[in-house]
Amino acid sequence: MATALKIPNMSEAEWNARLELAATYRVFDHMGWSEMIYNHISLKVPDEEGAFLINPYGLHFSEVKASNLVKIDIDGNKLDDNPYPVNKAGFTQHAYFHAKLPWAHAIAHTHTTATMAVASLEGGLQPINFYACNFIGNIAYHDFEGVTVREEEGPRLLESLGDKRILMLKNHGPVIMGKTLGQIFLTHWSLQRACEIQLATLSMGKPVVVPQHVIDVHQRDLNQVELPGGPGAPDLAAMIRKIDKIDSSWRE
C-alpha cells in the first residue's frame, strides 16, 4: 500500500492511513455506494490521539485522494490547512461514536438504495437469505430524528447502538463501525447484499423465513476459516488492486 511520502512533515503512519482511506473511498464509489458529494467514511489517525481523516466536503468519492483528505479533531475542527470544509452532518454522528467507543477506529455511513429501503421497512432486515442470517441479532436500530447535525442526539444514538457495531438509522441508512477499514468494507458489502436480496425476494411474494436455531448454527460456523490480515483485509485488498488498474490517482 505504501508509496513515497507526499506531504512534508507527515508521519509514515498517517500517510499510509490516508492511502488506505482514499483507496476505500474509490472502492465504495466503484461498488456504487457513493451519493453525490455526500456520505462519509472516517478513520482515526493511528499515531495522533484525537485526530481523524474524512473526505473533503464538495468532492465526489471518485475524487478523493490521500493528499486531499481533511484531518480534523474530535469536534470537527480542521488540524491542517486543507482548503475544503467538512460536512457537519458527516462528522457529528461519527465524532460521538469515535469519542465514546475506543474500538471504533473506522466508521462508514452510506445512502445506498437497498440499505435505505430496508431501514425504511417495518421490521428492518429479515432472516430470509444467506447474508441476512449473518446479521440477525447483530444490528441495532435508531428512530429517524432528521438530518444528524445536532450534538444532543449523540447519547440517544449511542443508547440505540448498545453492544452492536451496526446502527440502522430508520428511514435513513446504516452506520457501520469497526477496528479497520477492511472490516467495515466487508460488513458493508455483506449488508448491502442482504438488503438487495431482501428487496428482490419481497417483490416476488412471501419469503421463506430461516428459523433461529439455523441462524445460530450459521453464525457459529461463519468464521471457521479466516484469511490473514483480519476480517475484510483480503477483500478490501482485492478491490484496491482492481481500482488501482482503473485509476490510481487516489495515491496522490
Automatic annotation (TrEMBL):
InterPro entries with a match to the protein in the record: Aldolase-II_Adducin_sf, Aldolase_II/adducin_N, Aldolase_II/adducin_N_sf
Q: Which GO terms describe its cellular component?
A: cytoskeleton
**SUPFAM superfamilies, A to Z:** AraD/HMP-PK domain-like
Give any Pfam family that matches.
Aldolase_II
User: Which molecular-function annotations from GO does this UniProt entry contain?
Assistant: actin filament binding
**Positions of the Class II aldolase/adducin N-terminal domain:** 19-199
- Determine the domain of life of the protein's source: Bacteria
Question: What does the sequence similarity comment in the record state about its family?
Answer: Belongs to the aldolase class II family.
Q: What is this protein called?
A: Class II aldolase/adducin family protein
Q: State the organism of origin.
A: Sphingomonas lacunae
